[in-house]
Write a structure and sequence with these properties.
Its cofactor is FAD. The chain has three domains: 96 residues, Elongation Factor Tu (Ef-tu), domain 3 (Beta Barrel), CATH 2.40.30; 106 residues, Rossmann fold (3-Layer(aba) Sandwich); 84 residues, Beta-grasp domain (Ubiquitin-like (UB roll), Roll). It is 17% helix and 32% strand. The two termini are 18 Å apart. The chain binds FE2/S2 (inorganic) cluster.
Length: 324
C-alpha cells in the first residue's frame, strides 16, 4: 500500500481565514490560499501537517469537503498534557495568521462499499465527516456512533443532526460506555468499519472485530499503539542501510533511528511525528526485512515489507536497501 514517496509532498503557505470554537477545548480553523486559489486535491481520511514552528509539526485530519477546493478545515482539541502542538494552535493561531502546511497525506483511505459503520471518539470525529459526505453521496447505507466525554465537548453535533437516525450521539457522562456488540452486531462481509478516537476505543473495536473479515476494519490512531515500539526478537542492534538513490551506505547502531543515521550523513528526509503514526517518513524498501514498529501500516502491509517508517522501524536483516 506504499504511498507516494514523501519527498514529492508540497508545502504551501496558507492563511487562517476563519476560526471558531466548535466545542469545549476544540477550535476549528479554516485555511485558505492567501490569493484565493485552489488547494491541492485530497480524499476523505486525509490529514495535513501544520508546521507550527521549526521544531513543532502536527498532523490534523481534514474535516471539510474534498469538493471545496478553496478551503481546508481542521478541528484541534486542546491537550493540556500534550507536547505543545495543540496549545500553539489554540493560543497562537488566530484569524489572519499565516501558516506553512504540508500534505495532504492519507493513511486512512475511504474505500467504496455498500454499507459502513463509522465509530468516532471525541476529536476522532474529524476524518469521519468527509467520509460520511462521500457515503451519503454514494447512496450507501451507513451509521455513525459518536462518543464523547460529555455533549459540550463534542464538536459537529449540530451539523450531524441533519442525518437523523443514521447518527447516534453518545455522551459518556449520560449513557456510560457504548455497547459495541449492539452497534456492530454479527460480522458482515458487506460492511466496512471506520474508527478513529482514543486508544481505549480503538483497542475495544479491534478486539471486537477480530471475527470480522480482515478487510473490514480501518483505524486511525492519534498516538502510537501501546506495544508498537517493542522490538521483535530477531531485531538486530547493528545493521546497514543502503540509500539507493543517494548512493550512500549508513551504519545504524543500537538506540539510533534510521532517520537520524541517514540525516547525519546529509540525506534530506521529511518527518513529522517521530512516533510512527503520521506516515511522513515512509520509504520504499527495495531489499531486506524491516522490523516494523509503526502504527500506520496494518499487519498485511507490514508483512509485504515493501515500505517502512524510518523514524521508529529498524531491521531484521543485516542490510536494508531503501529507495532514498
Ligand atoms: S515521522 Fe511520522 S511516521 Fe515517521
Amino acid at each position: 500500500m506504499s504511498q507516494v514517496p514523501q519527498m514529492q509532498e508540497r508545502t504551501v503557505e496558507l492563511i487562517v481565514a476563519e476560526r471558531e470554537e466548535l466545542a469545549d477545548d476544540v477550535v476549528g480553523l479554516v485555511l485558505e490560499e492567501p490569493s484565493g486559489g485552489d488547494l491541492p486535491d485530497w480524499n476523505p481520511g486525509a490529514h495535513i501537517d501544520l508546521i507550527l514552528t521549526d521544531s513543532l509539526v502536527r498532523q490534523y485530519s481534514l474535516c471539510s469537503s474534498p469538493l471545496d477546493r478553496r478551503r481546508w478545515k481542521v478541528g484541534v482539541l486542546l491537550d493540556p498534557n500534550g507536547r505543545g502542538g495543540s496549545k500553539h494552535v489554540h493560543h497562537e493561531l488566530h484569524r489572519g495568521c499565516r501558516i506553512q502546511v504540508r500534505g495532504p497525506r492519507n493513511h486512512f483511505p475511504f474505500q467504496r462499499a455498500n454499507r459502513y459503520q463509522f465509530i468516532a471518539g471525541g476529536i476522532g470525529i474529524t476524518p469521519m465527516l468527509p467520509m460520511i459526505e462521500a457515503a451519503e453521496a454514494d447512496g450507501a447505507d451507513w451509521h455513525l456512533l459518536y462518543g464523547g466525554r460529555q455533549r459540550s465537548s463534542m464538536a459537529f453535533v449540530d451539523e450531524l443532526s441533519k442525518y437523523g437516525e443514521r447518527v447516534t450521539i453518545w455522551p459518556l457522562n449520560e449513557q456510560g460506555m457504548p455497547d459495541l456488540a449492539s452497534v456492530l452486531g454479527s460480522p458482515r462481509d458487506d460492511t466496512l468499519v471506520y474508527c478513529c478516537g482514543p486508544e481505549g476505543l480503538l483497542s475495544a473495536v479491534e478486539q471486537f472485530c477480530q471475527s470480522w473479515p480482515k478487510y473490514a476494519l480501518h483505524i486511525e490512531r492519534f498516538a502510537a499503539k501501546p506495544d508498537a515500539h517493542t522490538p521483535s526478537e530477531e531485531a538486530l542492534d547493528n545493521f546497514q542501510v543502503v540509500c539507493q538513490r543517494s548512493g550512500i551506505t549508513v551504519d545504524v547502531g543500537p538506540g539510533e533511528s534510521i532517520l537520524a543515521a541517514i540525516k547525519a550523513k546529509g540525506v534530506s528526509m521529511l518527518a513529522s511525528c517521530m512516533e510512527g503514526i503520521c506516515g511522513t517518513c515512509e520509504v520504499a524498501v527495495l531489499e531486506g526485512s524491516p522490523d516494523h514498529r509503526d502504527s500506520v501500516l496494518d499487519d498485511d502491509e507490514k508483512a509485504e515489507n515493501d515500505c517502512m517508517m524510518i523514524c521508529v522501524s529498524r531491521s531484521l536483516s543485516e542490510k536494508l536497501v531503501l529507495d532514498i
